[in-house]
Amino acid sequence: MRPWRAFDLIFFDCDSTLTRIEGIDELARLKGLFDEVQRLTAAAMDGEVHLSSVYDRRLDLLHPTRADIRTIERLYRANIVPDARKLLGALNFLRRQVFIVSGGLALAVIPFGVGLGVPSEHIRAVDVVFNRLAGRWWDYDLGRGGFNPDERYLDHDAGPLTETHGKADIVRELREGRTGKALLVGDGVSDLMARSAVDLLIGFGGVVHRERVAAEADVFFECDSLAPVLPLAASPSDCQRCAQAGFQSLLDKGLNLIREGAVQFRDSASRELILKAY
Fold this sequence. Notes:
Elements: E1 9-12, H1 23-31, H2 34-45, H3 51-62, H4 66-78, H5 84-93, E2 97-105, H6 106-115, E3 123-126, E4 128-131, E5 152-156, H7 167-175, E6 182-186, H8 189-192, E7 200-204, H9 211-216, E8 219-221, H10 229-233, H11 236-244, H12 248-259, E9 263-265, H13 268-277
Helix pairs in contact: 1-2, 1-4, 2-3, 4-6
């Protein structure tokens, strides 16, 4: 039986993967339009409709301000998924290259990711254009931070991340010039559609259980923790180093969740490889 091989490039979705919220849904909650927008989000994430068909509609309904989107970044941080911060710390310690590829709004996703230790150049999300003449644009004190918080949404970059099949293109772009195996962790069908761009697709069901993702991902987490990513991404020798750096409890938790069946493998031999390795 071949040994389990470690991964070098680790890609994460953001909403409902690193954080327990969907940013666009929380914007809708702020605007009193949660039910309508949440139905659109769920339909896109479940693969019932193409993401591109609802992306414009949601933002046109909400017309968020720059301050609204900054509020989402604070909510991201307040709702971080269990063990996410410690996991990214361990991956950085092991010198893995960590990326975030998200259909969320860049103004919220990028500072959230940087706060988790992901370099900004390793983060891809959707840029938006604001109306700089909205609100009290003339008020110097209001814009002291460099931008007027009342600037209101005008348009967004309708690139690959606003399409159901677009995430694969971004992952491939980020892999150019980089060697090694890659895995992607995400909760939605857009992540599933990026399966061809990585060597392992991990479906995360710790926030939202999506039947199609559970059925088709190479590995599926039924647990609300990202701890099992560590033994999946690293080698046993890597994890010995992690233990010396204070990550033993994270490794133990991840392995226990695998042993207890909270992590499902489409290929049962892969599960045996992991357990044998440790």
